[in-house]
Task: structure prediction
Amino acid sequence: MEPLLAIMAGFLFASGLYLMLRRNYVRVVIGLILISNAANLVIFTMGRLARGNPPLVATGETMPAEGFANPLPQALILTAIVIGFGLLAFALVLAYRAYRELGTVDVDAMRVAEPPYPGEKTVSGTPDQEEA
Amino acid sequence: MDWLLVLPLAIPLFFGVVSILARNNLLLQRWFGVLGMVVLLVVSIAILIGVRTQGILVDQMGNWIAPFGITLVADHLTAFMVLITAIMGLAVAIYSLANIDAERESFGYYPLLHILLMGVNGVFLTGDLFNMYVWFEVMLITSFVLLALGNRKEQMDGAIKYVTINLVSSLVFLSGVGILYGMTGTLNMADMAVRLDAVDSPGLVTTASMFFLVSFGIKAAVFPLFFWLPASYHTPPVAVSAIFAALLSKVGVYALIRVFTLLFVQETGYTHQIILWVAAVTMLTGVLGAVMQTEFRKLLSFHIISQIGYMIMGLGLYSPLGIVGSVFYVIHNIIAKTNLFLVSGVANRIAGSFHLKHLGGLYRKHPFLSIMFIIPAFGLAGFPPLSGFWAKLTLTIAGLDAREYVVVGIALFVGLLTLFSMTKIFAEAFWKPLPSDRPKPAAEVEGIPGVAGIRTMMVPIVLLAVMTVVLGLGAGLFINVSLDAAEELLDRTRYINAVLGDP
Result:
């Protein structure tokens, strides 16, 4: 099972990275979402996959019975999912605001903060043409 | 349980919440801003005194014993960073009174500032790697909003790049944490340090360390990973630029110093050599970028990158003197660099522009402001007796001791170029007569207009300039204190024993 999940995580990382190399910012955000899931999968896999009992402590005991599953990776992933959800929601809203303000989703065309130097070649074409 | 270490997190949270509750009363929010920073300053001085007298302070949250719960730890480095955070918070809160417009204030500028400091202090204080990730995110999300607050076109453009690259960095960090957890089965950094030594394949540990080098490298803005910084730092109001310049990239530097002195010391010949060369190239590219710029704040942004190189250089040398240099340099640089950003805001208020082409005549009309520029600028370039001189001297001696002549040569050459670009600002903005053909100043007065506003803005500038001078004149004392910090960092057993309890 571990090799399968490892390949899956690698595939998600690769797809996310590919999308992040696009000029269309919406695709970049989707790439971020994929990588965020890949990172969660890495934590899950690194936490060892084992068939264990629920980590519940019986009444009067101080430790759960032998053979319990490790609950910590799930707790970490849950935290990471919540944080990632907040950040990515912000990134999406930002993408929308930037589109409204700048009139483009092409990251190469966003040169307001860093205007081109005199004589510098700027990009031509739209991201939609590139990907058509 | 001692509550002292919780306070740097609780105080900003309290004032952040109170500021939100007072959202209709801007006056109250402003003074809560200043008051919160003063309280934070008092607490952080108490922490520094505690560390000086009792050694490393440790707090186990919820009274869970060490490797199971979350631990807050304050050693010398942490105490310094928390103190400097509070000082910068106070300086920027006072500056904000005159620099932040009512619209930004009503959209929650002050609560965000408090929570940003909470996140920064959290990274400094935590002794748990996953908890550090959480604090990083607290810091990031507030910085995202502060950067985009105001909705101007440049801000949107800068924020897109800043947000994207910092999210990537967080995800790399998170993957690294996951892999280290899989290798050691713990997240407590002290416990992890012990168990990493027992991992039977050191190559694997070094590979995992690269996740952290890349992730914190992005946050600290080192050589191939710095492009987000000059794209975004000049877009928000000056007060926001200043607090970002003061704290955010230094949090990355702190995290690098922490993990590469505590966790990843198995193959220092390999990892720290990479850090050393990254440092050299960072210094050089940063300063070359700065020399090219003609916009006040962009020029300073490139200087941040260049200065990060010096801070990392001491870590790369990995000798007691090198770490002393790094720690001293971080403190010196935060003060001087923030001050330069604050001065740029006053220059903008007076002359109506950030472009050196459109500035001029400031020396004739405002000689006092010019002196307040020269002190941090020459401090940054490393003029004796200002603080930058001693920081660079320490790093140079450490570099020569380690026989890294090329890196030392680059560091000194970069100092020369730093001086060059500082004199360029001085000649253009202060000496040159005010150009007559400049465009009309954009009537973009934020906060309190006029002379009263400039007076308010000068308060933190003078405060920080005095600190630069004091840090320079009393360098012996500060270097001795940094030496204690370096000894603590290099002798890992002290940190480990303090957290896990004496064996």
Chain B touches chain A at residues 130, 133-134, 137, 140-141, 144-145, 148, 151-161, 163-164, 167-168, 170-171, 174-175, 177-179, 181-183, 187, 230-232, 234-235 (CB under 8 Å). The mean pLDDT of chain B is 88. Residues 7-500 of chain B form one domain. Chain B has one domain: 7-500.
